[in-house]
Amino acid sequence: MELFPALPLTEWQDTKTTVHLFCQVVGKIRLAASPRRNHWWNVPFHATGRGVTTRPMGQVDGNPIFTIDFDFVGHRLVVSTVDGRSVSFPLAGQSVASFYRGVLDALAALGVTVEIADPSPFGLPEEYPPFAEDTEHGAYDPVWMTRAWQVLSQVNLVLEEFASGFSGKASPVHLFWHSFDLAYTRFSDRRVDQSAADPVTREAYSREVISFGFWFGDPATGEPAFYSYTAPEPTGLADEPLPLKAAEWVANGDGHLALLRYDDARAESDPKAAVLAFLDSAYHAGARRAGWDVDHLACPGGVTAAQPA
Questions:
Q1: What is the DSSP string of 160-227?
Q2: What are the domain boundaries of the chain?
Q3: Could you name the domain of life of the organism this protein comes from (predicted)?
Q4: Over 90: is that where the pLDDT of 242 sits?
Q5: For a designed S-S bond to 177, which of 23, 66, 191, 254 qualifies (C-beta 3.0 to 4.6 A apart)?
Q6: Residue 181: which of 229, 138, 139 has the closest Cα?
Q7: Inter-residue contact 100 to 68 (CB < 8 Å)
């Protein structure tokens, strides 16, 4: 399989929007049926060999232990319980409304009851109707979704490799369903006053972070890209060099993103090495400006134990 195959947003924009909304439906279920973790780590999805999973949930709320998986190889949604029962249905041919009904019916058939506090999309730039009313979004091209899954799987492992070099507090590599981006975040122990922020932001950024990730693109960016940001942003961050020629600092709200466009990474002679170099340079830029002890937090090759002479 080609590393980082072409993935022009224009070719699968409608499929991407539909799948993003499908993920929001399942994400709201995960939010309701899992014990809360710091920085919302309980909520995102994780990659599997065939797609993404909620991971097991239930039990603490009286439900059987159950898991919801997006199978982007077979193009089905699979709802399973720990005793081996499962219900599945195809992803193609579904509107958001029919998908929402299908998920609830599958859960009911397995004896799972989940109360979704707000069954409507969260944090999207456009106004979308509640899940049960959205009959407009229903595009699903299996060919392009397969390609997107292959890219997601490859990027997941690149981020895992990058994560191996840090020994401090860090998130898993996970897929945020509200923004539909694959992310990995490093933390310092410095508390940040977020008292004026909304509850989601307050918890996500209660500590100083340097975050990294990949998104598939949206109407604003127009193309997929790798990114990094430091929050709160230290003074002079965007003056730090990004040695990779194609990488740049771009304005993002009141701050900046380090950005490497996917097609620019693909054009490099060694795309994976280019992405790793970009992520490393963005980390050192943020860490230098924020005063992190980079040497103390280093973990070469994923090893923290002192090696014998």
A1: HHHHTTB-SSBPPPEEETTTTEEEEEEEEEEE---TTS-HHHHHHTSEEEEEEEEE---TTT-S-EEE
A2: 9-133, 142-299
A3: Bacteria
A4: yes
A5: 23
A6: 229
A7: no
